[in-house]
Amino acid sequence: VQVTGPGVLITVNYALRAADVLALLNEIRNAGAEAITLNDLRITARSTIDEVNGMLLIDGTPQPAPYRFAALGDRNTLMGALNRIGGLLDVWNEIEGVSITIEPADRLSAPPRTVVEPAFRYARPAP
Hints:
Helices cover 21% and strands 35% of the residues. The chain is an alpha+beta fold.
């Protein structure tokens, strides 16, 4: 379902690889985000993050830079975690050509996930 709430906006103006996006998503989740989007696509544990010929793909959809991440959660906690010295974004900011902004937001929105989820093959509801 669509959700709204406070959080942070992270804009990365640099071509990211799939591994970079996974690292950032883990950083955001570890900071307590309750919902995440990338370029207005909802990211969940079942989202696919891949790249083909240098183009980032989210659930098979090409995503060019700049990348706009929205993380819904406690703004102060998210800002502190994402701005920490020695953290992922701090390290990325040291790379020439990388431009990153992190802004607190009072109200963000994350749309519902529109990708049809594949059926589970092994996991079944417990009796």
